[in-house]
Write a structure and sequence with these properties.
Blueprint lengths: L3 E10 L2 E11 L4 E5 L6 H9 L8 E6 L5 E4 L11 H6 L3 H18 L6 H21 L4 H11 L16 H15 L3 E5 L7 H13 L3 E5 L3 H7 L2 E6 L2 E6 L2 H35 L6 H18 L23 E12 L2 E12 L3 E5 L6 H8 L12 E4 L5 E4 L12 H6 L7 H10 L16 H13 L5 E5 L7 H14 L3 E5 L2 E5 L3 E5 L3 H7 L2 E5 L5 E5 L2 H15 L31 H5 L2 H22 L2 H4 L2 H29 L1
Parallel strand pairs: 3-7, 3-8, 5-6, 6-7, 12-18, 12-19, 14-15, 15-18
Antiparallel strand pairs: 1-2, 1-4, 8-9, 10-11, 10-13, 16-17, 19-20
Helix pairs in contact: 3-4, 5-6, 9-10, 14-15, 19-21
Length: 663
Amino acid sequence: MALLSIANLEYRIGERVLLDGASLTLNAGDHVGLVGRNGCGKTTLMKLIAGLSAHGPDAGQVQISRDATVGYLTQDPDLDLDQTLRHEAGSAFAELTRLHDELDKVAHAMAEVTDGAGETMQRLLRRYEQLEHRMQQAGGYAVDHLIEATLHGVGLDDSTFNVKVRDLSGGQKGRLALAKLLLSKPDVLLLDEPTNHLDIAGREWLENFLNQFPGAVILISHDRWLLNRTVSRIYELEAGQLVEYPGNYDKFRQLRAERILAQHRAFEKQQTKIRHEQAFIDRYRAGQRAKQAQGREKRLARFKRDEGLERPVELDEVNIRFAPIQRAGDQIVVAVQVSKSYGQKVLFRDVTLTIQRGDRIGVIGPNGAGKTTLTRCLLGEQDADPDPRTVIRIGSSVDIGHYHQTHEGLNTQLTVVDYLRLKVPDQLEQSARDLAGAFLFSGGDQDKPLSALSGGERSRTVLAGLVVSGHNVLVLDEPTNHLDIPSCERLEESLLRFNRAEKRYSKEGANKIHPGTLILVTHDRWLLDRLVDQLLVFDGSGRVTHFLGTYSDYLAEQARQQTVAEPKPEKPKPEKPKPAPKSKPTRPSKGGGGGGGGLGRMSQEKLEAEIERLETELHRIDFDLASPAVFSDGDKVRQLKAEREKLESELKPLEREWGRRAE
């Protein structure tokens, strides 16, 4: 029987329809992603499943299997503010705590039983055994370790364990709520943007947890990297209905593009039919065929009303040019021996870096490691520690656009269009509306004041104005934090254009547009992998490493270093064989075995080096196959297994030749 079943769910808020026949079914082990534009009803659907909506569905039903539990991570967690962080996390085991207390009472009762009360003692012993069995099922005595491991996994260290919940930051409360939910191990796990307050290490830990979680999961997230590695199908909430796409996020993008293309073709075919019908009506509206034209006009009106298709929004291409107005000098920033500390807390130490025009740099590391502080020091917005060795120099003709998470100094009385008119080069209303449309504002949304927008809509407005303002350097601090997936993709496309050199043709001829320079502070691994080609990596202890390569290159290097660091198994020394009886010499065979062919002529040093290389490659593949993130990707697993079989087939004749020589 299914753990969760949703059938023909309908839900309205006033005249607005959020759900219009939504259906899905989940069994144990099903991990699915739920995507869609902000405000389309994803969180409403989660609340209906969890039974936390203000009122139930207008139609349809939600069925949960008997005895199944549902856990829901809200974006506004309900926590006991007077408890310590550690105690609040432990409250996930409320049932286990109750069993502990009851077990203690039974133990005390047993100690007070007199010698002559054998029947009472037997009853208490049976109860004690029952309680111990139930405790073992609920986690037993190992929960302390589990609680601490989970809190560490989501990025909460020991120094926060005794802090009252009311004194925690918003991010710490969000991580505590996530840890508490995961510790409760419900049968159905509903996660609404669980990565909002997690750094990369926390997201990696969550990936591993979800890949090993045996229950059902519905995951709302704009973290495309997480979706790609933890779900086996994706539901898109569109026009109140759930459209199912089998596979991970990569597959979703492919299938969705094919579906949108099919919709576009159907739309164009329908528009052609409408144009032909309208041409006939206009031509014969008066004259002998006027009656026929009137009949066709009525049929056309009914057709438009009942079967008319809307043009898919995603097909509107971005025709805005995101290019720097002025060419910057070759060097954007030169920094030598830059450090920053607050008392005993060292954020970074002796950072030396040169940023060249056109560089694409990602800044990554744990929360609170100093990533934002370093960028502000490099831009002259904040002072570094005083040191005669320190040099920070900004290059010539550098025009910096800096995106802050807090939107400092934003005039929220302006409408979206009014704000963007101040940013577009020609300051025309139509240009501002084109830009707003490119960033997914349509209709009346373009004329809303910024004060009436959601956090994601406001972020989208500021980012649109920033990338079109002609800056030749963009510094973006967590730009995707409040964006939905379509907005993330539109931003990604815009930044790729900003950083790309190309030719612009005008009446005066062709002018080269020089690439802009990008500094991106983010935990969004998908965005990092698509946009940057070098990384500044903070380790949280003051050390900053400059890595040349993409985020995927960085992960590969981390895996390689881990493989090299692991001790290699010692190769057993061959035993000295007994002398063999003399026999007539035989002609060597032409094959690879038995010392014949190419292997027979290979030097001992080269033979052993080749064996070691193949064994190292096999060890690397085994390490990858053991990773939950890789193992959840069927295509990747098949590729690695095929590669492993090929390497084993190459290794066997080499090992036979090595053994033959050892004899």
